[in-house]
Each structure stands twice: as C-alpha cells, then as structure tokens.
Amino acid sequence: MNLDFTVFTFGLPILLKGLGNTILFCAISIVCGFVIACLIALCRLSRRSFLRLPALWFVEVFRNTPFLVQAFILFFAFPRLGVRIDATVAGIMVLSLYAGAYFSESIRGAILSVPKGQIEAARALGMPYLRAMRCIVLPQSLGYLLPATTNQIIGVIKDSAALSVITVPELSMAAQVVLGESFSPVETYVMVAILYWALTACVAAMMAYFERRVAAAAVATTSESARFATAGKSH
Amino acid sequence: MKFDFNVIVVQLPWLLKGAELTLSVSLLGIFFGTLVGVALALAQQSAISPLLYFVRVYISFIRGTPLFIQILIVFFILPSIGIDISRFTSGVVALSLNSGAYISEMIRGGLTSIRRGQIEAGRALGMPRPLIWRRIILPQVFTVILPPLTVEFASLLKYSALLSVIGVVELTRTAQQIIAATFKPIEIWLTVGVLYFIMCFALGVLTRRIERATTIYRLS
Amino acid sequence: MTKPSADSDKLSSAPMVRVRNLHKWFGPLHVLNDISFDVQSGEKICIIGPSGSGKSTLLRCLNFLEEHDAGTIWLEGAAMGFHTEEDGRRQRSSESEINRMRASIGMVFQSFNLWGHMTVLGNIIEAPMHVRGLGRSAAEQIALELLERMGLADKRNAYPSQLSGGQQQRAAIARALAMRPKIMLFDEPTSSLDPELVGEVLEVMRGLAEDGMTMLVVTHEMDFAADVADRIIFMDHGTILEQERPAQFFERPKHERATQFLARILRRSTRP
Fold this sequence. Notes:
heterotrimer; A: mainly alpha; MetI-like fold; 8 helices; 0% strand; flat; C: alpha/beta; 6-stranded mixed beta sheet; 4-stranded antiparallel beta sheet; 9 helices
C-alpha cells in the first residue's frame, strides 16, 4: 500500500472549508430540529387525536426510511412542484425534519419520565397546563434529556455526510473535490474520517460539560428547596 | 403536475429485486456483525492492555465517524492492500465492521445485566465455570440482546442505502438506475420510500413481539 | 479441645464442620478474627449479630464463595479450599475438588438467585443433571418430590418472574435440596421477603430441621432461632462472642454487647 502524503498538504484547506460548512449546516438543522421536535412531542402527548396521529405518522415515516431516500424525495419534490431550490436549503430542510423526528422521541421520553405527581401538584395549585409544562416539567426533564440527545446530535452530524449525494457542499462533498485532483481515495477519506471524529468528540465533550452543569444545578435547587421546606419548621 | 402511476407498476419487479438485495446484504451484515461483536466483547474481557486499547479506539472510531465514510474507506482500502473483492462483499464488510462495534456494546450490557447472585448460586451447587457460562450466562445474554439486535437489523436495512455510492445494486441504486432511464424521480423515490417503510415497520412489530415474549425470562 | 496436627487433613472424628482460627480481611478491614467452632451432624446453629459482624462472610467461607485468608475449614473431615501439603505449605485446592465438596453443601441466598430463563423445574434439575450426571427422568422425579414437600407442585412449569418472593425462596430451597446435601447453609433467607411471606419459608425450614438436616442459619428471626436452634452463635465485629443454647443466650447473655443487641431487637418487636 502506497500512501501519498502530499494530498494532506493541498487537500486540507479544502476539507476544512467543508468541515466549516458541515458545522454550520448541522447547527442550523439541530436548532430547527429541536423546535420541530418540541412541537411534535407536545402533539404526541396531546389528547386530541387530530394533533396526536399526524405527529405519530410523521415520526414513524422519518424513522422507518433511510435518510438518503428522504433527501432524494425532498430534493426532487420542489422542482416538480415548480419551486427552484438550492441543494443546501433542501439539505438543511430534510436534515431538520429528520433530526426533529428523532429528537421528538427523546423529548417525549424525557417528559414522560418526570413523575406524574409534579404536574398534578401544579394543576392542583391552579396552574394552567402550558405554564405547568414550561415551568415545572420541562426544566426537570432536562436532566433526562441531555444524555439521550447527545447521541442523537452526534448521529445527525454523521448522517449529514449523506447530503453530499445531493450535492450539498459539506465535508464529504469537499472530499470528492479533493479526490478529483489527487486520486488518493484512501488518504483523503481517512483525513475526512479524522475530521468527523474530531468534531463528534468535541460535541460529546461539550454535551458532557452541560450535563455536569445541569446535574450541579439540580443538586443546588433540591438543597435549596429542602432548606426552604425545613426553615418553616424551626422555632 | 401529473403523478405517473404506470411507471411504478412497470418498474416494481426491478425495485423488488433491489429490495431483495437490500435484505440479503443487511442479513449478512448483521450475521457477521454479531461475530465481530462477540470477538470485540471477548477481547474486552481479556487483560491484554494493547488489545483493550485497540478495541476502545476501534469502537470510538466507528461511533464517531459517518458510516458513509467508513463504506468508502473499506471500498478503497481493500484493493490497495491486494484484496480484490466484489462491491457487494466490500459493502458487507463495512456494514459488519460498523454493526460489530454497536453489538459488542450490547453484549457487554447484557453480561453486566446478569446479577452476580445467579452465578453464585451455580457455584454453590458445585457447577464448574464452563457449565455456568454455557447454561446460565450465555442463554440469558442471548435473550437480553435479541430485541436490540433486531433494532440494529432494521438500522442496517436503512443504512444499506448508502451502499449505492459504491455501486451495490440494492434498492436505492436500482431506483437511481430506473430514474436515469425513465426521468420520473418523485414517483420512484416515493415508491422506494414506501418499500423501505414496509420492511422497517414490519421489523419494528417483530421487535415489540420479541420484547414481550422475553419479559417472562427477566426477574425484576 | 486438642488442635488437630498439621499433617492430618483427613480426620476421623465426628464433627460435620470444624473451623479453626479463621481469619479474613477485606482490605484493611478484619472481617473474621480468629473464628473457631464445631458443628455436629444434625445440629441446627443460628448465627446472629449486628450488621457488619461478619456472619454472612463466615457462611460464605464455608462453601468457599469467599476465600479465607488464614485458618482451616474441615467439612466431614476434608479441608475446604486450602489444604496443607506434606512440607507444611498452604496450597489452594483444585477447582474440581472445591466443586465436588460444594455439591454436598446446600446454600440458600437472601435474594433467592433463581435462574430467570429456566422454569422452576428446570432450576431444580439443572445441577443434579449436569453436576451429578443424573438422567432427566431421575432428576425430575427428585424435583417433583421436593416440589410436593414445598407445596409448589403446581408451579413446576412457571418462571421465577411469575412467583412471589416466598415461592421463589421455597423453590430455591428445593433446588439446594435436590443435590442431597449433608449440610444446608441459609444466608438471611427471609430478609428480602414481605412480612406475610416469611412464615411459609420458616415453616419449610422447621420441617427440614425436624427431618434431621444439619443447618447453619444466619437470621434476624429471633423467634425461629429460639425455637429451632440447638446453639446460638453470636458474632460482633468479626469475633464469636457467645456460643450457647438459645434459652441461655436470650435470658442470660454473658457479654455486654449481646445484651445491648438483644435490647435493641426486643425494643423493636415490643413497640406497639
């Protein structure tokens, strides 16, 4: 096996630009995905079936089909409907929807894992449903949510590589550009793999930091409320 | 905008052939992936530190990089070290190496889920270690990992679509070939989506059945 | 009592169990400190004491689930776990020797430890078939007899997850008895059970005692101990503080700590 190391020097700038795009596109998709996921999760938890069922179908469709096929469908749907769309915009759209479907499962699981008594206490005090969700349930669900979404966020970053097939100019696509000049596929793809690896490792470390902060905040607030609760008893 | 149903009817047999290949590549992937997973799990039980280090780096690499790139690396690296195999085989290798990492984690989880007391009961009855492994530990690990293994199989069915980029003529690649000839992308891709959905959804139902069937073997 | 000589690991004298100068450390913690006692055939011994006194560790050393660091354990005259070579060295016995001896000791655990993937019948016949080499029908016959005695005949094809705690423990006792052990060790057999299920397990243990089984029971059930035990061994901080008949122990304990322990136990049980 002959490794051509010159491809490292001229290929790296191109790949780094692609990496930058990957980070940007994934960040946008993850944020949009979360918004979509919150909506979907709330619909799935709703008692009204006209909200619950379409949300369920949405999730099932996106979870039971390959992301690549979803990307193709969206990419070709717009011209068919007469709308001219940029590959990047289409890519971010499909990635957001895909992310949203998976995140919604985590959010739903996290909300369900908050003990039922919490929201019952809030309702008993006269708090309306949405306020109870926002102020009582959602903050508590963060502790359950972070570990689950770390893996899914990393999954979105990895799955975004498939967008290169519909010509979105992210990291995997940049690899094709380098390959067009260098004819060293093994070296190029190994470099690309290492860049993805570095990116996911950074994201994992960042999420671990947030998990620790949330855990510390949880300890602080419980000891806080414990002090508050017992303060009234001392005389 | 007109939706051409006719082209779907005409092309369906080809698409089904592609689906057949998707199924076979995924089945081979999960089979060899399980072998890889067992090997990795056993390696992690050993005390040889270079081996442990290698396994940990390997699993981290698989979990931290896209399968898309892994497929391309396997496809290009094998000829360069003199191994000449078909695209199909290269695809199976990539899928197996990927699944193997995740399956080894499942096996390790399964092993730790077996409570020490069960092994102690075996020892107290005078059962030798190999017997305890064969009759108590392994059967229970198997029942514990069966549901996540079916989930992994469904995942492979979806990710096998990526094999189209190395020219394996599974469902996605077949669709691309048909579209190149008929210029009906939406009709074909939607049909392909439905086919994948049917396969994965059926597997999901199977997974839930297996989960229900195995709960009786699990002590609280 | 004269100490047995170092070159005779096989003794011809009567005790079923003989323990001499047993020591065990968990790191810096001296969990068993110079333990010595005998158990005669057919005796029922109840080992009681506060938590952390080393009671369970002592029991688990007897069938070598824990390895003792010093001292000797003889079961029916044969040394368990470690034996002394001709030149006086302490040598670990082979796995097959240890397993052979374990086959004639039955152990019942606090958390039952039934195998979840096998039926009750499957649990009971497993060791007789694969350790003693019995055929399936012979093993099943023994198992069904035992299940009758335990009152679990109708549960033979049930899985442990389908049984109550009391039923699981009775099945576990049957599993141990299927190997026809000479000694039965019970490690807090009722501590994990709901109060209303404790009685059915103690009943079974009483029956075993009446049939003449040699039993060592670590327990907190003082009524049971007072009724059934031939001797109470009271342990605290790794040493045996008292060894006497139950009547004597419960009414006139010799040690301060035994008195304190009994006072705490009685205070709990007489609280309205």
